[in-house]
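Checklist before submission:
- one chain only
- standard amino acids only
- sequence pasted in full

Submission:
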Amino acid sequence: MEHTQAPARVPTAAEPMPPKSKKAARAAFLGFAVDYFDIYLPVVALAPAIHYFQPADISGALKTTLFYLTFAVTLIGRPIGSTIFGVLSDKIGRRTSTLIAVAGFTVATFLMAALPGYQAWGYGALACLMVLRLVGGIFMGGEYTSANPLALESCPKPRRGIVGAVIAAAYPIGYIAISLVTLPLLALLPAAGLDSPYTQWGWRIPFLVGGLLGVAFFWYFYRSIEESEVWRAESAARTEATPLRQLFAGPNARRLAQVFVLMSGLWFAVQAIISPMSGLLITHLRQDPDAVTAALLVSNVALFAGYLVFGHLGQRHGRRRVLFLSGVATATASAIGFLAAIALLRAGDQFVLAMAVYTACLVISVSPYGVATVYLLEAFPTRVRASGYGVAFSYSLIIPSCYSFYMLGLSSIMPYVYTPVVLIVLSGVLTAIGARLGPETRDADLAPTPSS
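Returned file contents:
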């Protein structure tokens, strides 16, 4: 009797993940959280003590500009790092590339914690801070560009949507963590001037925490995480052409253009809804800073849950469909909700209701990142996956990152506090168009094929 081989059993979403997959997913989440913790160090922890690095006799406008530069140089570094480490990850492996990146931003963070101030080094102190933030940003861009492909390549297909959402949800976790470290320090060590304890040494504690988190993550990754088997299988058939040359040619280039539009839309959502909100609430709408900080922490907790919900929806109903519908909802419901939240704040005594409406807008417009992370990684073949993911994710931030200039220009034709609404609508339109132009990827095989 002729025996036929039974077809391979396809795992279902209800089945537990293999231990190797769990470790890789856990590592990607932790690495992304540490990454975002370090990104927000100057915004949250150093902001009350930024005059430690500045002369006292410069104008307020220049002080503000120099402060924002400490954050901007990190964002500049991330696209550079995503290019460098995307190529490294595709050429020498996800694991090795991740370890190099984590070691780099960990060292940069520790060095920042040890910097003297303006009184000791003059403008040299500020220059060193800027350089270290730029270098740290380059290595931060390398961390997620390497670790995230490894995690998703190790993940069973039915679980990729949920795992991608969990990894992406490290963004609000990083913000929450840095806030929880910094706020008690400010309560114990008020930043009351140049000679206050927080200004002189208190701000260094969150940087030291960030460095220690980097050390812990490096050790965990080195001891626990194996190289991607998908990448290993592809490496034997790797061509001489560089990953970037392959990325910017043929079908890969067309997919890159499509996901670049999609990610530009999602980054506009972040820059319109998250980035200016603290300043709008405190400076322009005269809300209590402590209440604003507490409310934004609650909003980020809701955002974490939103990532997981959208990841589940993307796994069940398809990435493309969920991204398209979220774009439509952003351009309509989220834009209207943001208008309503600002109107409530301007009316007075409606802070709680206004922040609840704002949180709903935040979840609608930013939670789709929980789908976009896995969608980007499914968009490219193995030999250019890290490069494509890194370039699409990081370079699409550049145009939206100029949001403050767009808001300033729009303020000539409408009240400044309402200008984010225009960017929210633009965000939704770009997200919907980007999703509409692309294919569904939920059933894509990440393992290499002869045609990849």
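Reviewer check: The chain has two domains: 18-229, 241-444.
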